[in-house]
Amino acid sequence: MKYSIAKKLFGMTLNGFYSNVSANGLDKLPGNQPVLFIANHCNAFIDPLLLASCLNRKVTFTAKNTLAKNPLLKLIMKSFSVELFSRRMDRAEGATGNAFNAAALSRLQNKLQDKGAVFIFPEGQSHNDDVLRDFKPGAAKLALSYAQSRTSLDGDSDLLIVPLALDYSDKSVFRSSARIQIGIPLSLRAWLDDYPGTDAKTLTKQFKTMVEDTLTTQKQLLRKATLSVLPPVLASTFGSTFRCWEKRIIGAPLGVLGWILNAVPFAITSILVRLLSTDHDHPASAAVVVSPPVFILAHAIQLLAIGFFGSIFLVLMYLLMLVPGTLFGLSVFDSLFNVDPANSDMRLSCG
Amino acid sequence: MNINQTIRHGLVQRAASDKLHLLPEGVFAGLLVSIAFYLGVSSIYLPENLGAFIQQTCVLLFFGVVVSVQRLYQHHRWVKIGRCLLFLGFISLLYNALAALAFNNVPWVSDGLLYGYDRFLRLDVIHTRIAPAITQFLWQTECLSLAYAAFIPYLTISVFLYGAHRDTQLSELFLLSVALLYAFGFLGYLFVPAHGPVIHLAEQITTPINGGFFHSLVTTSVDQAGGPHGAFPSIHVGAAVFLCLFDFRHGSRTRAWLYLPLVLLIALATVLLRYHYVIDLLAGVLIAVAAMFVAERWTAKQRR
Fold this sequence. Notes:
The complex is a heterodimer. Chain A is an alpha/beta fold.
């Protein structure tokens, strides 16, 4: 599967699971320059998907190589061109060693040489802690080896290290929200000019500070946004009132139809997610990975059944109503359960 | 400048920027003038057209009076509503009038040509096999007829929502696009007159349409508008596609998704109820896109 197709497919499922996927600070990102993204890691497979879905640019991700044992994950990681690394803590699980990592690091370096973007989780593993864990030196080593491989870091060759803060209102809950805050990028050339002869340990500490600052900024911005929410403004025009009722009168039945059409695949996905989740950061990842094949297969079977027992007309109606019904089904869910007060035009509430 | 002068100055400034540009009316006027001119010239050798020419001239004069009044009172709230009513009125008037005009004055009927295109594209099976198979069931015909009929409220609601929008630039863009779409469509009615498969293939497709209340509502309306005519292009589909496209591009994406099933059902209904050939639908989509494209370029030029 190509990167762009995989990104669209899993981006859709991500936007289906979370009611509000947003990225703040995209204007800080460079155009045509090598970029190293570093972020906190709190939601397993969702974290890299969140970034991939928010960026237009292709990003090379990194992951532990024991994930490749799962054939579905292996296929997904191949689509996203994920570079696999062997972690020391996984050596008992059969992970291979330093030569393997050196080869992977070399490929990542080549990606940066080609002005690509690489994404690394310096913490090394997903966790549920409120604070950042210790950063491993891998990201810093990559940055420094890139600097050593170049004769100069002028202009487009300069490596930008961009810190990200990934935040979820409740990461395992359906229709909660997911946010990325993009922090202030660090120019590797500027850092090396200020701190010549810097080592990986020092740079790693700097990376941790950058991610912490970005997390703090995100929390402050969220608090500000929550405090500044004004009471709903009354609909001030006939047009806006009419549009609101139009949304409700037509959207609600469409939404109910969407629920009916998606009830079986949703139930199957929920059961599979419950079976596959052994930790708090597994449900969302399991849902996003499992839902595409389950939904595609379930809808195909439903369509065949309708075609066999019903008529071609019913099949046509099913196909026409499927996407809008699903969209408004989610909208009805959001309006009924108000899981997250995120602002969405698709919601059936007015104002 | 004292406070009252400042407020008045501000109101005048706002009023100046909200000035009504009459491009949409200009498009309709152009169409009406062309029809009147055509009737005038043709009444020289076809005296029976004289009555239609006089009628068309009166319509044009009335149109001119209404537009002038509109221009005079352009800052009044009701002018935008009046504009929408004018548009809908003229669309309906022209649609009804063009049936007789086209078939009486243009020496060819294009049903054979249009069906030929469908056969070339191997789409004639839709008319000969699929449509009769679907429309033999009452509830399926009723669904399609309801969708076909729902086009009128969809168009009306959208014309008022966007035509009377407080953002004058948006309402101008919308009305200009609608005017262009209908102008392109009516030119098609005039120069490519066709009755549609319901007449042309009546002997070939003998399976009757099994319809109920909604289907009889549709057939009655079509008969009152001069019988099946104006097959090419399908303005039904073109206008529905345009309204949805406009929502996606300039309006509310939610509204676009809300009406997308209806737009697709309208497209199906026009063919399955035997009012249009498939090529008519393609032409309808084309004129919708063309109208949007031209209107956007014109209004952008206007703003500069």
